[in-house]
Design goal:
- By secondary structure, the chain is mainly alpha-helical.
- It has one domain.
- Helix content is about 60%, strand content about 5%.
- The chain contains 18 helices and four strands.
- The protein has helices spanning about 5-10, 25-55, 55-60, 70-80, 95-105, 110-135, 140-150, 165-175, 185-195, 200-215, 220-240, 255-265, 280-295, 305-325, 340-355, 360-380, 390-395, 425-430; strands spanning about 15, 20, 405, 415-420.
- Strands 1-2 form a two-stranded antiparallel ribbon.
- A hairpin with a 4-residue loop joins strand 1 and strand 2 (about 20).
- The longest helix is centred in the first third of the chain and has 29 residues, at about 25-55.
- The radius of gyration is 25 Å and the shape is globular.
- The protein starts with a helix and ends with a helix.
Length: about 425
Protein backbone atom coordinates (compact mmCIF):
# COMPACT_ATOMS: atom_id res chain seq x y z
CA UNK A 1 0.00 0.00 0.00
CA UNK A 2 1.39 3.35 -0.96
CA UNK A 3 1.68 6.07 1.61
CA UNK A 4 -0.54 9.11 1.42
CA UNK A 5 1.06 12.31 0.19
CA UNK A 6 1.17 13.76 3.69
CA UNK A 7 3.07 10.76 5.08
CA UNK A 8 5.48 10.79 2.18
CA UNK A 9 6.26 14.42 2.87
CA UNK A 10 6.84 13.79 6.56
CA UNK A 11 9.14 10.81 5.95
CA UNK A 12 11.15 12.35 3.13
CA UNK A 13 14.85 13.06 3.77
CA UNK A 14 14.22 16.78 3.75
CA UNK A 15 11.28 18.61 5.30
CA UNK A 16 10.96 21.60 2.96
CA UNK A 17 8.96 23.66 5.44
CA UNK A 18 11.34 23.29 8.40
CA UNK A 19 14.53 23.15 6.36
CA UNK A 20 15.84 20.20 8.40
CA UNK A 21 16.97 16.74 7.36
CA UNK A 22 16.63 13.53 9.28
CA UNK A 23 20.38 13.64 9.94
CA UNK A 24 20.09 16.60 12.32
CA UNK A 25 20.14 20.40 12.30
CA UNK A 26 20.77 22.28 9.10
CA UNK A 27 23.99 24.14 8.38
CA UNK A 28 22.61 27.53 9.64
CA UNK A 29 21.61 25.88 12.93
CA UNK A 30 25.09 24.40 13.29
CA UNK A 31 26.58 27.81 12.62
CA UNK A 32 24.43 29.41 15.31
CA UNK A 33 25.43 26.71 17.81
CA UNK A 34 29.11 27.19 16.92
CA UNK A 35 28.80 30.97 17.32
CA UNK A 36 27.19 30.56 20.74
CA UNK A 37 29.96 28.26 21.93
CA UNK A 38 32.63 30.57 20.54
CA UNK A 39 31.04 33.59 22.21
CA UNK A 40 30.92 31.79 25.56
CA UNK A 41 34.58 30.81 25.34
CA UNK A 42 35.65 34.30 24.30
CA UNK A 43 33.56 35.83 27.08
CA UNK A 44 35.14 33.52 29.66
CA UNK A 45 38.61 34.33 28.30
CA UNK A 46 37.87 38.06 28.56
CA UNK A 47 36.62 37.72 32.12
CA UNK A 48 39.66 35.63 33.07
CA UNK A 49 42.17 38.05 31.61
CA UNK A 50 40.30 41.08 33.00
CA UNK A 51 40.39 39.69 36.53
CA UNK A 52 44.07 38.75 36.21
CA UNK A 53 44.90 42.31 35.15
CA UNK A 54 42.84 43.78 37.97
CA UNK A 55 44.42 41.53 40.59
CA UNK A 56 48.03 42.13 39.46
CA UNK A 57 48.20 45.18 37.18
CA UNK A 58 51.93 45.74 37.71
CA UNK A 59 52.73 42.20 36.57
CA UNK A 60 51.15 43.08 33.21
CA UNK A 61 52.81 46.49 32.91
CA UNK A 62 56.18 45.50 34.38
CA UNK A 63 56.39 41.67 34.34
CA UNK A 64 59.26 39.96 36.10
CA UNK A 65 60.37 36.55 37.35
CA UNK A 66 59.47 35.50 40.88
CA UNK A 67 60.95 33.50 43.77
CA UNK A 68 62.15 29.96 42.87
CA UNK A 69 61.62 30.73 39.20
CA UNK A 70 64.78 32.80 39.44
CA UNK A 71 66.78 30.98 42.12
CA UNK A 72 65.99 27.36 41.20
CA UNK A 73 64.35 27.04 37.78
CA UNK A 74 66.67 29.48 35.98
CA UNK A 75 69.96 27.82 37.10
CA UNK A 76 68.49 24.38 36.36
CA UNK A 77 67.50 25.45 32.85
CA UNK A 78 70.93 26.99 32.32
CA UNK A 79 72.71 23.73 33.12
CA UNK A 80 70.23 21.11 31.91
CA UNK A 81 68.02 22.80 29.31
CA UNK A 82 64.65 21.15 28.72
CA UNK A 83 65.58 18.22 30.96
CA UNK A 84 65.20 20.67 33.85
CA UNK A 85 61.41 20.33 33.63
CA UNK A 86 61.85 16.99 35.43
CA UNK A 87 63.86 18.53 38.28
CA UNK A 88 61.80 19.04 41.46
CA UNK A 89 61.26 22.36 43.22
CA UNK A 90 60.93 22.19 47.02
CA UNK A 91 60.99 18.41 46.67
CA UNK A 92 58.19 17.80 44.18
CA UNK A 93 57.32 18.16 40.51
CA UNK A 94 55.82 21.47 39.38
CA UNK A 95 55.45 20.60 35.71
CA UNK A 96 53.24 23.50 34.51
CA UNK A 97 55.60 26.12 35.94
CA UNK A 98 58.64 24.40 34.46
CA UNK A 99 57.02 24.01 31.02
CA UNK A 100 56.06 27.68 30.90
CA UNK A 101 59.56 28.80 31.91
CA UNK A 102 61.37 26.48 29.49
CA UNK A 103 59.11 27.49 26.60
CA UNK A 104 59.54 31.22 27.29
CA UNK A 105 63.32 30.98 27.81
CA UNK A 106 63.73 28.99 24.59
CA UNK A 107 61.73 31.53 22.62
CA UNK A 108 63.36 34.69 23.93
CA UNK A 109 65.42 35.04 27.10
CA UNK A 110 65.54 38.81 26.68
CA UNK A 111 61.71 38.87 26.81
CA UNK A 112 61.37 36.11 29.40
CA UNK A 113 59.07 37.92 31.88
CA UNK A 114 56.62 39.03 29.18
CA UNK A 115 56.42 35.55 27.68
CA UNK A 116 56.02 33.80 31.03
CA UNK A 117 53.24 36.26 31.89
CA UNK A 118 51.23 35.54 28.77
CA UNK A 119 51.82 31.79 28.94
CA UNK A 120 50.75 31.79 32.61
CA UNK A 121 47.61 33.76 31.69
CA UNK A 122 46.84 31.27 28.91
CA UNK A 123 47.33 28.34 31.27
CA UNK A 124 45.09 30.00 33.85
CA UNK A 125 42.35 30.33 31.24
CA UNK A 126 42.80 26.68 30.25
CA UNK A 127 42.24 25.63 33.86
CA UNK A 128 39.24 27.93 34.25
CA UNK A 129 37.78 26.58 31.00
CA UNK A 130 38.21 23.00 32.26
CA UNK A 131 36.19 23.87 35.36
CA UNK A 132 33.51 25.49 33.22
CA UNK A 133 33.21 22.93 30.43
CA UNK A 134 34.39 19.53 31.66
CA UNK A 135 31.58 17.12 32.64
CA UNK A 136 31.71 17.28 36.44
CA UNK A 137 29.28 17.12 39.34
CA UNK A 138 29.49 20.90 39.71
CA UNK A 139 26.24 22.79 39.30
CA UNK A 140 26.60 26.19 37.64
CA UNK A 141 30.09 25.23 36.40
CA UNK A 142 30.73 28.60 34.74
CA UNK A 143 29.99 30.39 38.02
CA UNK A 144 32.31 27.94 39.78
CA UNK A 145 35.01 28.71 37.20
CA UNK A 146 34.72 32.45 37.79
CA UNK A 147 34.68 31.86 41.55
CA UNK A 148 38.20 30.40 41.21
CA UNK A 149 39.36 33.82 40.00
CA UNK A 150 37.60 35.70 42.80
CA UNK A 151 38.71 33.85 45.92
CA UNK A 152 39.27 36.26 48.85
CA UNK A 153 43.04 36.08 49.18
CA UNK A 154 45.95 38.24 48.20
CA UNK A 155 46.80 37.83 44.50
CA UNK A 156 50.07 35.96 45.16
CA UNK A 157 49.36 33.03 42.82
CA UNK A 158 47.76 35.08 40.04
CA UNK A 159 49.53 35.90 36.75
CA UNK A 160 52.91 34.55 37.92
CA UNK A 161 54.28 31.55 36.07
CA UNK A 162 56.14 30.21 39.12
CA UNK A 163 52.76 29.67 40.79
CA UNK A 164 51.14 28.04 37.75
CA UNK A 165 51.46 24.69 39.53
CA UNK A 166 48.81 25.81 42.02
CA UNK A 167 46.44 26.28 39.10
CA UNK A 168 47.50 22.97 37.63
CA UNK A 169 46.46 21.22 40.85
CA UNK A 170 42.86 22.29 40.17
CA UNK A 171 42.86 19.84 37.26
CA UNK A 172 43.10 16.96 39.75
CA UNK A 173 39.97 18.29 41.47
CA UNK A 174 38.18 18.40 38.10
CA UNK A 175 39.13 14.77 37.51
CA UNK A 176 37.90 13.73 40.97
CA UNK A 177 34.54 15.43 40.32
CA UNK A 178 34.12 13.86 36.86
CA UNK A 179 30.61 12.55 36.18
CA UNK A 180 30.54 8.72 36.15
CA UNK A 181 28.38 8.74 33.01
CA UNK A 182 30.81 10.99 31.11
CA UNK A 183 33.51 9.25 29.16
CA UNK A 184 36.26 11.35 27.53
CA UNK A 185 38.77 9.13 29.32
CA UNK A 186 41.77 10.39 27.36
CA UNK A 187 41.09 13.98 28.41
CA UNK A 188 40.61 12.94 32.02
CA UNK A 189 43.87 10.96 31.98
CA UNK A 190 45.70 14.04 30.67
CA UNK A 191 44.16 16.28 33.35
CA UNK A 192 45.00 13.78 36.08
CA UNK A 193 48.60 13.44 34.93
CA UNK A 194 49.23 17.17 34.48
CA UNK A 195 47.43 18.08 37.68
CA UNK A 196 49.17 15.32 39.62
CA UNK A 197 52.59 16.45 38.39
CA UNK A 198 51.78 19.94 39.67
CA UNK A 199 51.91 19.24 43.40
CA UNK A 200 51.89 16.45 46.02
CA UNK A 201 48.15 16.92 46.61
CA UNK A 202 47.68 14.01 44.22
CA UNK A 203 49.00 11.70 46.97
CA UNK A 204 46.01 11.98 49.37
CA UNK A 205 43.52 12.65 46.56
CA UNK A 206 44.34 9.27 45.03
CA UNK A 207 42.33 7.73 47.88
CA UNK A 208 39.25 9.32 46.28
CA UNK A 209 40.16 7.83 42.90
CA UNK A 210 40.44 4.44 44.62
CA UNK A 211 37.00 4.86 46.21
CA UNK A 212 35.49 5.84 42.86
CA UNK A 213 37.02 2.79 41.18
CA UNK A 214 35.78 0.41 43.90
CA UNK A 215 32.25 1.86 43.91
CA UNK A 216 31.71 2.33 40.16
CA UNK A 217 33.72 -0.70 38.96
CA UNK A 218 34.08 0.41 35.37
CA UNK A 219 37.24 0.19 33.28
CA UNK A 220 37.74 3.94 32.83
CA UNK A 221 37.80 4.51 36.59
CA UNK A 222 40.59 1.95 36.98
CA UNK A 223 42.47 3.64 34.12
CA UNK A 224 42.30 6.95 36.02
CA UNK A 225 43.32 5.22 39.24
CA UNK A 226 46.30 3.66 37.48
CA UNK A 227 47.32 7.06 36.10
CA UNK A 228 47.08 8.59 39.56
CA UNK A 229 49.16 5.79 41.11
CA UNK A 230 51.95 6.30 38.54
CA UNK A 231 51.96 10.05 39.23
CA UNK A 232 51.91 9.47 43.00
CA UNK A 233 54.92 7.18 42.65
CA UNK A 234 56.76 9.95 40.82
CA UNK A 235 55.94 12.61 43.41
CA UNK A 236 56.80 10.33 46.35
CA UNK A 237 60.11 9.39 44.72
CA UNK A 238 60.95 13.08 44.30
CA UNK A 239 60.11 13.81 47.93
CA UNK A 240 62.34 10.98 49.15
CA UNK A 241 65.22 11.66 46.78
CA UNK A 242 65.31 15.35 47.73
CA UNK A 243 64.82 14.57 51.45
CA UNK A 244 61.74 16.78 51.66
CA UNK A 245 59.53 14.35 53.57
CA UNK A 246 58.24 16.09 56.66
CA UNK A 247 59.57 14.70 59.94
CA UNK A 248 57.15 16.47 62.24
CA UNK A 249 56.38 14.22 65.18
CA UNK A 250 53.20 16.04 66.12
CA UNK A 251 50.92 18.50 64.37
CA UNK A 252 49.15 20.73 66.88
CA UNK A 253 45.79 21.97 65.61
CA UNK A 254 43.76 24.68 67.30
CA UNK A 255 40.17 23.94 66.12
CA UNK A 256 39.01 27.51 66.73
CA UNK A 257 41.95 28.95 64.81
CA UNK A 258 41.26 26.52 61.96
CA UNK A 259 37.60 27.57 61.81
CA UNK A 260 38.59 31.22 61.95
CA UNK A 261 41.18 31.10 59.15
CA UNK A 262 39.64 28.62 56.71
CA UNK A 263 35.98 29.58 57.13
CA UNK A 264 35.60 32.87 59.00
CA UNK A 265 38.18 34.85 57.05
CA UNK A 266 36.66 33.64 53.80
CA UNK A 267 33.75 35.93 54.63
CA UNK A 268 35.28 38.66 56.77
CA UNK A 269 38.67 39.86 57.88
CA UNK A 270 39.67 43.47 58.37
CA UNK A 271 43.10 44.99 58.54
CA UNK A 272 41.58 47.65 60.78
CA UNK A 273 39.47 45.42 63.05
CA UNK A 274 39.94 45.97 66.79
CA UNK A 275 37.18 43.65 67.95
CA UNK A 276 39.33 40.61 68.56
CA UNK A 277 39.75 37.07 67.31
CA UNK A 278 36.30 36.02 68.46
CA UNK A 279 34.77 37.67 65.38
CA UNK A 280 36.56 35.34 62.94
CA UNK A 281 35.76 32.28 65.04
CA UNK A 282 32.10 33.25 65.31
CA UNK A 283 31.75 33.98 61.60
CA UNK A 284 33.55 30.75 60.74
CA UNK A 285 31.15 28.82 62.96
CA UNK A 286 28.21 30.49 61.25
CA UNK A 287 29.59 29.62 57.79
CA UNK A 288 30.03 25.98 58.81
CA UNK A 289 26.56 25.75 60.38
CA UNK A 290 24.81 27.43 57.46
CA UNK A 291 26.62 25.26 54.91
CA UNK A 292 26.05 22.01 56.82
CA UNK A 293 22.43 22.90 57.53
CA UNK A 294 21.68 23.78 53.91
CA UNK A 295 23.25 20.56 52.62
CA UNK A 296 21.55 18.33 55.20
CA UNK A 297 18.15 19.96 54.70
CA UNK A 298 18.40 19.43 50.93
CA UNK A 299 20.24 16.10 51.00
CA UNK A 300 17.63 14.45 48.78
CA UNK A 301 18.59 16.85 45.97
CA UNK A 302 22.32 16.14 46.25
CA UNK A 303 24.58 13.58 44.65
CA UNK A 304 27.99 12.07 45.33
CA UNK A 305 29.65 15.26 44.13
CA UNK A 306 29.00 16.94 47.48
CA UNK A 307 30.79 14.17 49.36
CA UNK A 308 33.74 14.38 46.97
CA UNK A 309 33.87 18.17 47.34
CA UNK A 310 33.77 17.94 51.12
CA UNK A 311 36.51 15.30 51.09
CA UNK A 312 38.69 17.46 48.82
CA UNK A 313 38.21 20.44 51.14
CA UNK A 314 39.26 18.37 54.16
CA UNK A 315 42.27 17.00 52.27
CA UNK A 316 43.39 20.46 51.15
CA UNK A 317 43.19 21.82 54.71
CA UNK A 318 45.08 18.86 56.19
CA UNK A 319 47.72 19.15 53.45
CA UNK A 320 48.22 22.78 54.45
CA UNK A 321 48.54 21.90 58.14
CA UNK A 322 51.15 19.28 57.30
CA UNK A 323 53.09 21.77 55.20
CA UNK A 324 53.14 24.89 57.41
CA UNK A 325 52.14 25.88 60.98
CA UNK A 326 48.61 27.22 61.04
CA UNK A 327 49.43 30.19 63.24
CA UNK A 328 51.87 31.80 60.78
CA UNK A 329 49.80 31.78 57.56
CA UNK A 330 47.22 34.33 56.51
CA UNK A 331 45.08 34.69 53.35
CA UNK A 332 46.28 38.28 52.87
CA UNK A 333 49.42 38.91 54.90
CA UNK A 334 51.47 35.69 54.91
CA UNK A 335 51.38 32.69 52.57
CA UNK A 336 48.03 33.36 50.85
CA UNK A 337 48.85 30.51 48.45
CA UNK A 338 48.03 28.04 51.23
CA UNK A 339 44.42 29.24 51.21
CA UNK A 340 44.09 29.03 47.43
CA UNK A 341 42.68 25.50 47.13
CA UNK A 342 40.70 25.43 50.41
CA UNK A 343 38.93 28.69 49.52
CA UNK A 344 38.15 27.45 46.00
CA UNK A 345 36.57 24.28 47.38
CA UNK A 346 34.66 26.19 50.05
CA UNK A 347 33.31 28.55 47.37
CA UNK A 348 32.22 25.58 45.26
CA UNK A 349 30.44 24.01 48.23
CA UNK A 350 28.59 27.25 48.98
CA UNK A 351 27.56 27.53 45.31
CA UNK A 352 26.31 23.92 45.26
CA UNK A 353 24.30 24.55 48.42
CA UNK A 354 22.90 27.74 46.90
CA UNK A 355 21.73 25.79 43.84
CA UNK A 356 19.65 23.28 45.80
CA UNK A 357 18.24 25.58 48.50
CA UNK A 358 14.95 27.42 48.57
CA UNK A 359 14.90 31.19 48.69
CA UNK A 360 15.37 31.56 52.48
CA UNK A 361 18.53 29.47 52.37
CA UNK A 362 19.68 31.13 49.17
CA UNK A 363 19.41 34.52 50.83
CA UNK A 364 21.80 33.55 53.62
CA UNK A 365 24.21 31.73 51.33
CA UNK A 366 24.10 34.62 48.87
CA UNK A 367 25.06 37.05 51.65
CA UNK A 368 28.07 34.89 52.55
CA UNK A 369 29.19 34.75 48.92
CA UNK A 370 28.73 38.50 48.47
CA UNK A 371 30.80 39.17 51.59
CA UNK A 372 33.56 36.94 50.22
CA UNK A 373 33.59 38.99 47.00
CA UNK A 374 33.79 42.13 49.16
CA UNK A 375 36.91 40.64 50.77
CA UNK A 376 38.37 40.11 47.31
CA UNK A 377 37.66 43.70 46.34
CA UNK A 378 39.28 44.94 49.56
CA UNK A 379 42.37 42.72 49.64
CA UNK A 380 42.57 40.84 46.34
CA UNK A 381 45.08 43.04 44.53
CA UNK A 382 48.87 43.08 44.66
CA UNK A 383 51.31 45.69 43.43
CA UNK A 384 55.07 45.52 43.00
CA UNK A 385 58.17 47.62 42.54
CA UNK A 386 59.57 47.77 39.02
CA UNK A 387 62.64 45.93 37.76
CA UNK A 388 63.83 46.32 34.16
CA UNK A 389 64.59 42.77 33.01
CA UNK A 390 66.33 43.68 29.77
CA UNK A 391 68.57 46.22 31.51
CA UNK A 392 69.50 43.63 34.13
CA UNK A 393 70.28 40.97 31.51
CA UNK A 394 72.31 43.37 29.39
CA UNK A 395 74.27 44.43 32.46
CA UNK A 396 74.89 40.77 33.31
CA UNK A 397 76.05 39.96 29.76
CA UNK A 398 78.52 42.86 29.90
CA UNK A 399 80.09 41.64 33.14
CA UNK A 400 83.31 39.65 33.43
CA UNK A 401 82.65 38.87 37.09
CA UNK A 402 79.60 37.40 38.89
CA UNK A 403 76.44 39.48 38.65
CA UNK A 404 73.63 39.52 41.23
CA UNK A 405 70.48 39.30 39.12
CA UNK A 406 67.48 40.48 41.21
CA UNK A 407 64.43 38.23 41.54
CA UNK A 408 61.04 39.36 42.83
CA UNK A 409 60.10 37.95 46.25
CA UNK A 410 57.20 39.96 47.69
CA UNK A 411 57.11 42.84 45.23
CA UNK A 412 59.41 45.08 47.24
CA UNK A 413 62.78 46.06 45.77
CA UNK A 414 64.32 46.06 49.23
CA UNK A 415 63.50 42.40 49.88
CA UNK A 416 64.31 41.04 46.40
CA UNK A 417 66.12 37.73 46.10
CA UNK A 418 69.20 37.39 43.90
CA UNK A 419 70.68 34.70 41.69
CA UNK A 420 74.37 34.87 40.80
CA UNK A 421 75.17 34.62 37.09
CA UNK A 422 78.23 35.61 35.12
CA UNK A 423 78.48 37.31 31.74
CA UNK A 424 79.16 34.07 29.88
CA UNK A 425 76.01 32.44 31.25
CA UNK A 426 73.81 35.40 30.38
CA UNK A 427 75.24 35.47 26.85
CA UNK A 428 74.62 31.74 26.54
CA UNK A 429 70.98 32.09 27.52
CA UNK A 430 70.52 34.98 25.10
CA UNK A 431 72.21 33.19 22.21
CA UNK A 432 70.27 29.94 22.68
CA UNK A 433 66.84 31.58 22.42
CA UNK A 434 65.11 32.07 19.08
CA UNK A 435 64.83 35.86 19.29
Amino acid sequence: MSSPPEASTQNSPVNMESGQSRGGPTQPANRVLWLKKTFRILALASVTFGILVWRRPDQLLHPYIWVEEGTVTLPAFLHHGWLSIFYPVAGYMVLPSKLIFATAASLSFSHLPELTYWLAAAFTFMVVACVAYCPTYLRWPTVCAIAVLLIPTDAEVFAVSEYAFWWGTILVLVSVLWLPTAKKTSLRVALTALGGLSSPLIIPVTVLFLIRACVLRVKREFVILGTAVVVVSTQVACLFLTHNISHKSKILIDPLLLIEKFFGWFVFWSRHSHVGAWRGELIGGVVLCVLAGALLWNRNKLDAGILLLAACLAISIVATLVRVPLDIIHPVLAGPRYFFLPYILLAWLLIQAFCVCGWPGRSVLGILLVFSIHQTVMYGQRFQDTFDWQSEINACAAQTKPYNLPVQFDGSRASAWHVVLDGTQCKQLLSQSLF
